[in-house]
Amino acid sequence: PAECFECLHQMLSQKLEPDDITFGTLLDACILDNDMGAAHQIVNRLMGIAHRPMDTVMCTLFIKGLVRANCLPKALELYDEMKRREDARPDIVTYSVLTKALVDQHDLDRALQLVEDMNAAGQSPDDIIVTHLLEGCR
């Protein structure tokens, strides 16, 4: 990841804004190298650019990566940021990934809170999410 961050710094010094692919590649490199501090920096940078549009697909990919890297709190932070933004609202895939991760961590209360969030956003859990929740009841 050090070389990746050097490349990012060079881009920024040239006034070039990293795109979703750059952010995704940096996050993958951090996860593969098990460098969670750097992964957090990438997500913080992505979320900290107020004028930067974020889309649901890219944010959900980041959430999946963070979950895979056992960074559920950071994934939930990104989810909260998605809820605040108009351009990157959580979708059924976002809710499914987070529900499974929360159930896997034995946090059924927080998983059920996601279902409430879904309902408030006008969405309903699908069969996959219901199955995850049922797994949490074992």
Description:
The protein is an all-alpha fold and 138 residues long. The chain is built from 8 helices and no strands. It has helices at residues 2-13, 20-32, 36-48, 56-68, 72-84, 92-104, 108-120, 127-136. The longest helix has 13 residues, at 20-32. The protein is globular. The model has no long low-confidence stretch (mean pLDDT 88).
Distance between the termini: 40 Å
The low-pLDDT segments are none
The counted number of beta strands is 0
Biggest pleated-sheet summary? none
From the alpha-carbon coordinates, what is the Rg to the nearest angstrom?
Answer: 16 Å
Count the helices. How many?
Answer: 8
User: Strand percentage, roughly?
Assistant: under 5%
Oligomer: single chain
Which series of helices and strands comes N to C?
HHHHHHHH
Q: Summarize the amount of helix as a percent range.
A: over 70%
Structural class: mainly alpha
How does the overall form come out from the CA principal axes?
A: globular
What is the averaged pLDDT score?
88
List the helices and strands and how they pair.
Elements: H1 2-13, H2 20-32, H3 36-48, H4 56-68, H5 72-84, H6 92-104, H7 108-120, H8 127-136
Helix pairs in contact: 2-3, 2-4, 4-5, 4-6, 5-6, 6-7, 6-8
List keywords for this structure.
single chain, 138 residues, mainly alpha, globular
